[in-house]
Amino acid sequence: MRIAVLTIAIAACLVAVAPTGADNGQLVGTVGPGFGIFLKDSSGAAVTHLDAGTYTLLVHDLSEEHNFHLVGPGVDVTTDVVFTGDQTFTITVTNGTYNYVCDVHSSTMHGQFTGGSTPPPTTTTTTTTPPPPKPLTLRVGPGRTLTAPARLAKGRYAITVRDLSAVDNLHLKGTGVDRKTGVAFKGVAHWTVTLKAGSYRVFSDAHRTLSRTIRVS
Description:
By secondary structure, the chain is mainly β. β10 and β11 form a beta hairpin. The chain is rod-shaped, with a radius of gyration of 34 Å. It has a five-stranded mixed sheet, with no helix packed on it. Strands 12-18-17-14-15 form a five-stranded mixed sheet, with no helix packed on it. The chain has two domains: 94 residues, Sandwich (Immunoglobulin-like); 83 residues, Immunoglobulin-like. 22% of the residues are buried. The N terminus is likely disordered. The longest helix has 15 residues. Helices cover 7% and strands 46% of the residues. The protein contains one helix and 18 strands.
């Protein structure tokens, strides 16, 4: 009889300490000290989806300028902006989307995850390859000559400079651009520049009357 009672008592203890919904796992939120806000699971991985259930959320609030605010179906927990330190919450995640933000800087400090049967958010990365620079040739010499177009469209240009004079150079100057060859230099130079709307001068530093204007629009 005593053995049976002891067995029942042990079984009751085991039932009492059996895992509950609150033991699903611990989440760690961090905000600050810079302009960063993060939510990670017990393995240290960023949270993008959680199974439905109850979780312990430990928040490390490391800045008096920020707070950690988690809101979603059935959940609305936050630290104070002026608070710094650790704070623990118990949250129950169900189906839906959850957002965590710094209320003071919500446009730049935010994150999101889904719960239950709601699928994780999809992340689409778009890589834009800039168009190659347009070719352009400028020339000074031979003799007292200078060749440049009168009009160009704004944008990036790969410029080939043909300097065929030992007494003149080619100088391109305008908004954001100030490039030139040497007066005594003869040869080919290559520049990659961005021309903005406005006027650019192409001239010789040795003979300023040798000049052209490129209008960019």
